Amino acid sequence: MFEVYGTPGVDIYVSPSMERARERADTRRWHFDTGLEIIVVMNSPSNDLNDSHVQISYHSSHEPLPLAYAVLYLTCVDIALDCDRNCEGRQSRSFVDKRDWVWGPGGYGAILLVNCDRDDLNCYNQDNCDRHVHCLRDLEDMSVMVLRTQGPAALFDDHKLILHTSSYDAKWARVFHACGPKDSCEAYRHVLGRDKVSYEVPRFHGDEEHFFVEGLSFPDASFTGLVSFHVTLLDDSNEDFSESPIFTDTVVFRVAPWIMTPSTLPPLEVYVCRVRNNKGFVDAVAELARKAGCKLTICPQNENRNDRWIQDEMELGYVQAPHKTFPVVFDSPRNGELQDFPYKRILGPDFGYVTREPQDSSVSGLDSFGNLEVSPPVVANGKEYPLGRILIGGNLPGSSGRRVTQVVRDFLYAQRVQPPVELFVDWLAVGHVDEFLSFVPAPDEKGFRMLLASPSACFKLFQEKQKWGHGGALLFKGVVGDKPVNTISINQVLSNASLISYNKSVQSCIDWNREVLKRELGLTERDIIDIPQLFKTERRKAVAFFPDLGLTWGWAGWSRVSTHRSPPPRAKQHATVERPRALETDDPMLIWYFSALNLSGSVFSSVKWA
Fold it and tell me: pTM for this one?
């Protein structure tokens, strides 16, 4: 039998077996049984080496005095690797398993930003492209990790603290150690990341050492977004043995995803290209931006080289952590004449950049970002999507045809927070989802309506006008440009059997997408507004007969639709469209047709939403 006692501050428990709960050890004598365990707990770190101990006395049932004693001397040291696990903007020591990262409102886990902006304007590359901190502002984009140690300093004369990660995780994050004055860039030493997987931590600041962690890459097909860091206490006191690990603490970060913003949010900044003969268009956009109270950025002709399709070149999103949020431009693999604009003009302080390009030549028109949209927040099939769902276009399931290139698809799916919905767009010549759908805000519980192109609605509208005696009304009347434009009457449209037959086929393609959108976004017919639209065929693919929804955008309660051609200055003529009741607000919502062909050749602009 035996008795066991500890000095003050040492709690001792005995667990007789796996089946029985542990008990305090000082209540009685114990028999030596198979499976018995003695559990020692210290309540606070030691002040000195070996300042506590546990004593075990061995007894015989025939002798009143102990037969022998054993003493175990204890030194307690508290070692913790801490980070902001509860998304509170501070390093937390709350009791959660730091080795886990849990999604959801009740979840926990630290967040890491990809440091993909360029805070130092004297540098050409993004901040995470080298191993140096070039300006102190760069630290604001990093997550703080703190190593805390409490215990006698003499312990570390023959013990080491090693900060380490796996060679796999080292590819996705980089760690800097604050080794000197906080106001000096040179004080931040690169210690982990890429080819560095371990670091012996010197105790520059006694009980706390601060580290700054930056993400190097967004989640992707080969990267889940999780990165782990560990600190291990090694015993190096015995010269005859190699270092032996005593304790390891672990924290897990998740790299924050790239998040798209829906067009139903208020705009913050508008990007537009100035090309040949589009001064009027740029001036009109500038006036709209002024009324909406948002910034206007104009890409000059010498930079865009008459490539006006800025919405196809890039998509604007953001990244967010408890300590920092900043916008990130996603540069498409389209690579037209605008290919340098996102990197050279948008990348900067607190404005990040990301791109994905295939190794081969598999890029098609579907890889332009007119084929990349996002819905407002929705609930579908009992599941909430508070950030909405990404919409991309491709071909029908199981069929051959054009699809978004694999590297872009992999990137979008890997972000996880806006699970993509794939629509059928291969029937379109250009092949973009924004050619037949758009979202606008609505002042009700739903918060938005989806605008969907509808040849059926267009024919119905024309038939009504014909019935009212307006069949001779001309489309494109008074519209001129560099070339004469042929007019066509409502009667001619309604008597064109080929056009009607073709648009029935188009309507079936749109209806297929309609059902997918209703199912995947949780929409009802009340949430959808059919916009009159016709298409014509070119090389067995559909193109817009007149301006489609790809030329629509909404600012601060106003929805704009641009025409392909501008009317002559003396006789501006435009179509008027009845305002849908579902969109009525105190401020009028106007669907306004204004010109683009003579003014700009395109209405395409890109908007950074709040």
Answer: 0.86
